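Sample intake sheet
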Amino acid sequence: MLNNVRSQYSIKITFSDHAMTLQQLRDFVAVVQQGSVRAAARSLQTSQSGLTKSLQNLESSLQVSLLHRTTRGITLTRYADALFVRAQAILRECDQAETAIQQLRGLGMGSVAFGVSTAP
């Protein structure tokens, strides 16, 4: 739910004087999963420049370089390796929190499957 959609909500996670947003984490995870900024921008249906800016802001807030960018794509720094695992967990928790609230509000999301036969 939250992984592939740019959210209308802005939540900041603050470390000292620096903050990162859930959107930046979503963007970062998408880039890592897709293997390039270009592919991630396509999957998120956003511009490459916007995605690049989001990653730069995340790197700035953490004061580390997360990605080595090359013509062949990206490679992760040790900081990115550590952040990727935690970012995925944070985004999963956000999905679960959103689902729990929707269920409490009676807006549970799910699927219903049923079979239909043309035989009498």
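Comment: The mean pLDDT is 84. The first helix runs from residue 22 to 34.
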